[in-house]
Amino acid sequence: MYANPLQMYESVSKTTLSGREIEAAVLTKAALKLKECQTRWHEEGRQEKLDEALRFNQRMWSVFQGELGRKDNPLPTPLKRDLLRLSAFVDKRIFETMAYPSPEKLTAIIEINQNIAAGLREGLATHDN
Predict the structure, then answer these.
(1) Axis-axis angle for helices 19-39, 104-128 (nearest 10)
(2) Angle at Cα 22 formed by Cα 24 and Cα 30, nearest 5°?
(3) What is the pLDDT along the chain (129 residues), one digit of tens a residue?
(4) Which of the 8 DSSP states describes residue 71?
(5) How many other C-beta atoms lie within 10 A of the C-beta of residue 90?
């Protein structure tokens, strides 16, 4: 039995979502974690939540980098190159935020995550029609 509905949802999602759907969901989750930190910046416990959100984003982008670097990745080379450049920017921003935290630094990462997630979802909707 699951301790909470979120665990149940995540378990079901893992078995029913496509790769793009999972990527969009993870990007959205990462953006929401950062957005929560940004909106609750002055609340107690911010640093722990910020560290966790930044580490989550860092791990997620590291996985994307690994996938983009694979020789059998089916994406066109120019798109892979652009995404790798974007991931380098995100890495740099994450490290800057870890070293010198400020809520404004989160905006770019949040927007990048949200925009890529929206693009993946749009691609799925176009593909399904």
Answers:
(1) 150
(2) 55
(3) 445 555 544 554 455 557 789 999 999 999 999 999 999 999 999 999 999 999 999 999 999 999 999 999 999 999 999 999 999 999 999 999 999 999 999 999 999 999 999 999 987 666 554
(4) T
(5) 21
| Burial group, residue 106, by CB count within 10 angstroms (0-12, 13-18, 19+) | buried
Sequential DSSP letters for 33-61 = HHHHHHHTTTSTTHHHHHHHHHHHHHHHH
pTM of the full predicted structure?
A: 0.81
Tell me, what DSSP letter sits at residue 91? H
Q: How many residues does the structure list for the chain?
A: 129
